[in-house]
Design goal:
Shape: elongated
CATH architecture of the largest domain: 3-Layer(bba) Sandwich
Distance between the termini: 30 Å
Low-confidence stretches: 330-351
CATH topology of the largest domain: FAD/NAD(P)-binding domain
Oligomer: single chain
CATH superfamily of the largest domain: FAD/NAD(P)-binding domain
Mean pLDDT: 87
Strand order of the largest sheet: 6-3-2-10-22
Radius of gyration: 23 Å
Structural class: alpha/beta
Strand content: 25-35%
CATH class of the largest domain: Alpha Beta
Largest sheet: 5 strands, parallel
Number of helices: 6
Helix content: 10-25%
């Protein structure tokens, strides 16, 4: 039996940052993740995708963000159970929880924080009749390594942040990039929309709207696609790759059977307090939760993780009063490479 203070289900960015925030409160964390390495989608799906809304980083690759979060949290020595899915949760007579994985590994903690992101997921695929024939032969639904498209002709379909961001990024890598979207309006960040428009105006990319890809063609691999603009006749584009980026279809998996209050495939929490679920002692943070005004942003997950840890401290230490002092000195290595003495209390607890 693995015992810890906070058991975190999901080792993505939000879960990893929760380790750091818990460590400041002298709470130990253990993380469970079905993936073989930490980082969640940032490591598994788009490690080379640039992220633009992390404070102090004008741009950082998703994989590099994972590395930084792991570096930040390692001083607090978190434990990991990787390659295993959290399957079952049981509340014990003493108020603690036992979470068992699909491989039978048991974990015990007084607090459970679900940070499972979108849960298990699969890409949303466009309704193109022969799409599956070209999977792995020119069709991809995620971009793990953009160097695969170096000096290649690429067609991207979609109108969200992923489609816009990858259009911008691959414009510097591929020999030719075409973005096709079924509407003239985009759902992504306004800044990204502006950048795509400027690339189009400079002739750096092709932008076709409103249009839809209608067919894929080629003998042993993808050679060209067809598309239709409104009611006009079909046109063709020669391409080496077609990347439909229509988002992911998330599934909570076994967590949906834990008695939690679910709304639209997300876990409802008490927004404004501590992101606790309808089960006392069980929290949900990051993209996996929902509440009025919810924004599915990594930086929002960081905020939720912080408040969750402070609420967890009160559950674990009900007889202590927590007073937040400062977090400018943590006892980690200083800028000059020397070890700094930890202050009397980074976050002071008063008996």
């Amino acid at each position: 039996m693995i015992k810890t203070d906070i058991l975190i289900i999901g080792a993505g960015p939000t879960g990893l940052f929760a380790v750091f925030e818990a460590g400041l409160l002298k709470l130990k964390c253990h993380l469970i993740d079905a993936l073989a390495e930490p980082g969640g989608q940032c490591s598994e799906i788009y490690p080379k995708k640039p992220i633009y809304d992390i404070p102090a980083y004008p741009e950082i690759l998703a994989g590099d963000l994972t590395k930084k979060l792991l570096e930040q949290s390692k001083q607090f020595k978190p434990g990991f159970t990787l390659g295993e899915r959290a399957e079952k949760i049981e509340k014990q007579a003493d108020g603690t929880f036992v979470v068992t994985t699909n491989k039978g590994t048991q974990h015990s903690a007084p607090v459970v924080a679900i940070a499972g992101g979108l849960g298990s997921f699969e890409p949303r695929k466009p309704a193109i009749k022969n799409l599956s024939d070209y999977e792995d032969y020119g069709v991809s639904y995620i971009i793990k390594d953009p160097e695969v498209y170096r000096n290649k002709r690429v067609v991207i379909a979609g109108g969200g942040d992923s489609a816009l961001d990858w259009t911008i990024f691959l414009s510097k890598v591929a020999s030719n990039v075409t973005l096709i979207h079924r509407r003239t309006e985009f759902r992504g960040a306004l800044d990204s929309v502006d950048k795509v428009q400027k690339l189009k105006d400079k002739g750096s990319i092709n932008l076709i709207t409103p249009a839809e890809v209608t067919g894929l063609y080629g003998k042993n691999k993808l050679d060209y696609i067809s598309y239709r603009v409104s009611n006009h006749k079909e046109e063709h584009i020669n391409t080496d790759a077609f990347i439909p980026l229509f988002g992911l279809s998330p599934k909570l998996g076994p967590i949906s059977n834990w008695g939690l209050e679910i709304e639209k495939n997300a876990i409802k929490v008490n927004n404004g307090l501590d992101y606790q679920t309808n089960i006392p002692g069980v929290f949900a943070i990051g993209d996996v939760n929902t509440y009025p005004g919810k924004l599915k942003l990594i930086l929002c997950g960081f905020h939720e993780a912080t408040l969750m840890c402070h609420a967890a401290y009160k559950i674990i230490n009900p007889d202590k009063r927590l007073v937040l002092k400062y977090t400018t000195v943590t006892g980690i290595d200083g800028f000059d490479g020397t070890r700094k003495e930890a202050p009397k209390s980074v976050v002071k607890s008063i008996d």
